[in-house]
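Hi,

I'm pasting everything inline rather than attaching a file, because the server keeps stripping attachments. The sequence lines come first, and each chain or strand is labelled.
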Amino acid sequence: NEQEMLDKFQQYVDGENKVEPKDWMPEAYRKTLIRQISQHAHSEVVGMLPEANWITRAPSLRRKITLLAKVQDEAGHGLYLYSAVETLGVKREKTIQDLLAGKAKYSSIFNYPTLTWADIGAIGWLVDGAAIANQVMLCRTSYGPYARAMVRICKEESFHQRQGYEIMMTLAFGTPEQKAMAQDALNRWWWPSLMMFGPSDDNSPNSAQSIKWKIKRKTNDELRQEFIDKTVPQAEYLGLTIPDPHLKWNEERGHYDFGPIDWDEFYNVISGNGPCNKQRLDARIKAHEEGRWVREAAAAYAKKAAQRQLE
Ligand code: ACO
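And the predicted assembly:
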């Protein structure tokens, strides 16, 4: 019966075994994964937009090549993740339609504008740094295809984080104007980066079950704290100030204390009203429309090639 199946599944997951596409899984487990992995895929793809804005304006050929490679990596991450969603029985077209129709979420962070070159540094350092903190734990997620995709994604994310930090070092150790640009970018990206980890644990409706099924291996607040603890010394090395007057090492906890997060801003952004939500979706819809002929041509070619093989 159903309860026995659920108990067996729980034991299987508790034993650190990976769940594979053809294994039996609770419907809610499948749904949660479809939700999370598709949101993750959309985040990778929408995440290309704020950075793509700077490819043509990168300050040197070396910076341009590096940024181009990073943005291409993100397209690749999107593709692995859409494939992982397909292993759960949902067509990629449906997942993408949900995004374009504004029905699917993607990470709040990509609804903020990239105003200066320093933002490319701050994104690599903070946004990719936060993504790594979250994704390293997902390398141990219980769903096999997702866990395996994460291993490669994490390696590439480390390169992204380093390219960002290197930009920040160049600016922070450069002229006073460059340092001011770096500080301004940190000021604007710090709080939205902390929001990437999602609502605090007592307001996170999906966490408890996801932790139980080992989809998530750490809670939103645990990961946020890890990220802060790791990032504060990096800001200190740069000689930049994190825009939080409450930030303070707590000897007893062995962690940094930090100030309150503006959750109204977070919920506003994830409900579609952030500074760039409309711009991001419009850009994705336009790209999808403009790519239609390529998809049609590829499908027609595949059909012809298959026919030729039959002949
Ligand atoms: N941006 C947008 N939506 C968010 C965010 C965020 N930063 N954080 C939480 N949410 C959404 C959740 O998706 C959920 O919405 P839903 O129930 O309508 O689907 C709701 O807020 C409540 O949050 P939680 O219950 O905490 O949701 P969940 O357990 O899924 O945890 C988290 C959220 C941590 C983001 C998780 O989904 C996750 O680890 N996802 C994979 C990583 C990822 O997507 N990274 C994307 C950014 S990194 C990058 O692309 C470079």
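The radius of gyration is 21 Å.

If the labels don't parse on your end, tell me and I'll reformat.
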